[in-house]
Amino acid sequence: MKQNEEHKKDVILFGYGKFGRHLYTHLNRSGHHIRLATMKDTNYQDAVEDRIKDIKRFNPKHNDSIRMLGINPAKHLLYCAMDHTSNNLFLVLSLRELYHDAVIVAISNSDENTRKLKYAGADTIIDVYEASSQHLVTNLTKPAVAEAINRIVFEKNDLKIAEIVLDGDTFLEGKYAAQVDFYSRGLILVAIIDKEIGDDLIYISKGVDHKFDGGDTLVLAGKRDDILSFKRELSSE
């Protein structure tokens, strides 16, 4: 009975483009109640034409807009299926910060995007080119714990994820994460790897205020130029 209830857990599906539209059909056939959240007016109109009733507009870059969707982590599975990687990645980052205990599932169309989404905090990644209907249901109802990777990811999309290892003589030495204004630099501090503790990621969304030391590895999200600028700022010290 418990397994069946989990199987029927409600889904909030973000996106109704080439990926989201296909996934909506499979999830609907599997018996899930789906609340659809769209960013584009064209996607909203497509959903209306497909006679979908539970539709809401939202902006993935505004937390208040996300909160208006009425997300309940105990009730909803959050499914990120937006077409553009930068929007999808930013959405995963925002959802993980707003809803620490939520189960976040995200689609990917390449190995590089899979690595980025894992870094951002997605619990389960589904390759849209390999997923079948049964595969979708399995991943939604039994989300895997994402393993963090330990390399720099710089490719063609607007939003990048990068690792930066701190030397012992940067301006960050001895400061706490809350004291550093990453946002004014166009960056989001996603996580930290403290070699004194181990190789596991310490997610900032968990409320940890870490003290920076030489040897720490910062996992940052931002545009390529902003990340490079931050690297130069560190090296100038």
Sum this structure up briefly.
With 237 residues, the chain is an alpha/beta fold. The chain has helices spanning 2-7, 20-29, 41-49, 63-67, 85-98, 111-120, 133-141, 224-236; strands at 10-14, 34-38, 55-57, 76-80, 103-108, 124-127, 159-165, 187-193, 202-203, 217-223.
Could you characterize what this model shows?
This protein is of the alpha/beta class and 237 residues long. The protein is built from eight helices and ten strands. It folds into two domains: 2-141, Rossmann fold; 159-236, Alpha-Beta Plaits, CATH 3.30.70.1450. Helix content is 32%, strand content 22%. Strands 3-2-1-4-5-6 form a six-stranded parallel beta sheet, with helices on both faces. Helix 5 runs parallel beside helix 6 (111-120). The longest helix has 14 residues, at 85-98. The radius of gyration is 19 Å and the shape is elongated. Residues 1-8 and 131-157 have low confidence and may be disordered.
Layout of helices and strands, plus pairs?
Elements: H1 2-7, E1 10-14, H2 20-29, E2 34-38, H3 41-49, E3 55-57, H4 63-67, E4 76-80, H5 85-98, E5 103-108, H6 111-120, E6 124-127, H7 133-141, E7 159-165, E8 187-193, E9 202-203, E10 217-223, H8 224-236
Helix pairs in contact: 5-6
Strand segment tally: 10
Main pleated-sheet profile: 6 strands, parallel
Q: Which class of secondary structure composition applies to the elements?
A: alpha/beta
- Give the neighbour order of strands across the main sheet: 3-2-1-4-5-6
| Low-confidence regions | 1-8, 131-157
Under CATH at level 1, the class of the largest domain stands as: Alpha Beta
Q: How much strand content do the residues show? A: 15-25%
Q: What's the mean pLDDT score?
A: 77
Going by CATH, what is the homologous superfamily of the largest domain? Answer: NAD(P)-binding Rossmann-like Domain
Rounded radius of gyration (Å): 19 Å
Assembly form of the protein: single chain
- What spatial form do the alpha-carbon principal axes imply? elongated
Order of helices and strands: HEHEHEHEHEHEHEEEEH
Number of domains: 2
CATH topology of the largest domain: Rossmann fold
